[in-house]
Amino acid sequence: MDTVGVVLDLEPCSDPATVSFEMTEATLGIDYTYSFSAGDSEMIPVPDLSVDIPGLGGAGVYMDVVISGNAESLSLSIGIDACIDMGFGVLSCASTLDAADFPIWMLDSTFDFSDVCE
To answer: How many structural domains comprise the chain?
Structure first.
């Protein structure tokens, strides 16, 4: 079984708050970094990483990211979804077919960093 590693770097005291993540997968040599700020909501494709779905073929792996708020109430939702490009810029993602299991949330919480930010 492959292991996908994800490292988050959180800057809650920045204005706006920022998060960057690094995703790695040793077998395929994937090392991908992306940054985003409070107010962002994005589906970010992870280059060169896909999963096989029986009967459908290969689906690209996407990071589903939502960040909002500030140091006193910072909401972070970071998950992994699998999407197939249907053509003409249309994606069909596992989260639209099976919302109970996708995205796979790695982090989905609200934090209070007011004690550590000046």
So the answer is: 1
89 inside domain: yes
Give domain status of residue 117, yes or no: no
pLDDT by residue, tens only, the chain of 118 residues: 577 788 889 899 998 999 898 888 888 788 888 898 999 988 888 887 888 877 667 888 888 889 999 999 999 998 889 888 888 878 888 888 777 788 889 889 999 999 988 7
Q: Which domain holds residue 44?
A: 4-109
Integer Cα distance of 41 and 100 in angstroms:
20
Cα–Cα distance for residue pair 32/114, rounded to 1 Å: 30
